Each structure stands twice: as C-alpha cells, then as structure tokens.
Amino acid sequence: MFGMSLSFYGLQAVLGLFIPLFSGGFRLSLFVLFAVLSVPCGIAAFVLYYWNKDTVFNSVLYALPVGALAAETIGISIYLSKYHIFLFQLIMDSIGLVLFGILFFKRAKSKIIYVISFVISSLIFYFILYHKAVSI
Q: What is the pTM of this model?
C-alpha cells in the first residue's frame, strides 16, 4: 500500500509537469495518511499469511478473535446483569463464541498454545476494551 501510494501520487506530480489535467503538485497530506494506514494493512497481511500455515504460530492467531469474542461476551454479560439490556447481543456472542471456539480449536496446530493464547487474549481484550465500560 505504501508503494502504491507513492507511485500514484508521485506519478501524478510528474505527469502534472507535462499534462495540465494532472496538475496540482504532490499531495503530501494524502500520501502521509495512506502511508500511516499501510502499517495496519501490512500487519493484517502478515496475520492472514500465517493464519493457515502449518506452524505453531497459527494457534495464537486462531485464539485472538475467539479471545476478543470471549471478552465481549464477559463484558456484555456484566452489563446485562447491571442494566438489563443487550440480551440478544449476549445470546449471539455466546453462540459465536462456542461455534468459533470449537472450529478454531480443531484447526489449531497446538491445542495447548491455543488454550493459553485464548485465556491471555481474553484477559487483555477485556481489560483494554470492556473493563472501564462495565465498571461505570
């Protein structure tokens, strides 16, 4: 994405010297914005590349979304017990947690690393995203 942004805005600036349609110079602010956005895209590409490789690292990657869903389920259940709302979301999160948990557990190369990563990622996601929201 970085190379694509550089070539797009660079080519537009070079063509603007010869063709009036492309005039306007180099758009530094858009280039910087897309260069910054290319970092999460690169991280996502790395994760998706190693997701289905036959390595132990895929067990950690399989546990991350299930851990995030478990943290959301815990947060929503606490919120439901306090304020008596979001029952449907709790039901959907619980069903998704069970289905994805079983599906990803079967596909993980190392079951022990999957379970450990699941517990750690659930705790991290809960305390980062939901702990303050449910303690209000």
A: 0.66
Distance between CA 63 and CA 53 in Å, rounded?
Answer: 15
Q: Which of 117, 118, 76 is nearest to 93 (CA)?
A: 76
Find out whether 61 and 50 touch, Cβ atoms under 8 Å.
Answer: yes
Task: Note the pLDDT tens digit of each residue in 31-56.
Answer: 777 778 778 877 877 777 777 778 88
| Dihedrals phi, psi of 135, to nearest 5 degrees | -90, -5
Is the C-alpha dihedral spanning 126, 128, 133, 135 positive or negative?
positive
Q: Give me the mean pLDDT over the 119-133 stretch.
A: 89
Question: What is the phi-psi region of residue 7: left when phi exceeds 0, alpha when psi lies from -120 to 50, beta otherwise?
Answer: alpha
